[in-house]
Design a protein that fits this description.
By secondary structure, the chain is an alpha+beta fold. The chain is built from 2 helices and 7 strands; from the N terminus they run ββββαβββα. It has a single domain, classed as Alpha-Beta Complex (Nucleoside Triphosphate Pyrophosphohydrolase). The termini are far apart.
Length: about 140
């Protein structure tokens, strides 16, 4: 419920930080004509009714990037919670280091690989910004 006691619809969204062997993370540029067009984001999308977050992310990565990911390769890292007009966003971020296929941008204008610290220098949606510090910490621990 919002501050006025009105029920707020929850929008559950999943995203992946695909990490390559060099510790870089894949981001995609939102296409022209879409909300937040031109901003860079982690690939993913909405969880459909009856879907688990992990199943949704596997589906979204196949649809957006033509890659295949096993649910077991997804590790939950963090989440963001943000009010939006007429709904509330809950965005779950997973880390994935193992997939098959070469990412191809079917639902984005471009793809780019960046080290986590470099993500602070590109324009990203507000909900994605808190993920940068979490990724820096998580990937530094693994290095």
């Amino acid at each position: 419920m919002d501050k006025n006691g009105t029920q707020t619809a929850l929008m559950l969204v999943v995203a992946a930080a695909l990490v390559d062997r060099d510790g870089r993370v894949l981001v995609q540029q939102r296409p022209a004509g879409a909300a937040l067009a031109g901003l860079w984001e982690f690939p993913g999308g909405k969880v459909e009714p009856g879907e688990t977050p992990e199943a949704a992310l596997v589906r979204e990565l196949a649809e957006e990037l033509t890659i295949r990911v096993d649910q077991a390769a997804l590790t939950s890292l963090t989440f963001a919670s943000m009010p939006l007009p007429k709904r509330h966003l809950l965005l779950l971020l997973y880390v994935c280091r193992d997939w098959s296929g070469d990412p191809t941008p079917l639902a984005a204008d471009a793809l780019a690989w960046h080290r986590p610290a470099a993500l602070t220098r590109i324009a990203m949606p507000p909900a994605d910004l808190p993920f940068i510090a979490a990724l820096e910490t998580a990937l530094a621990e693994r290095a």
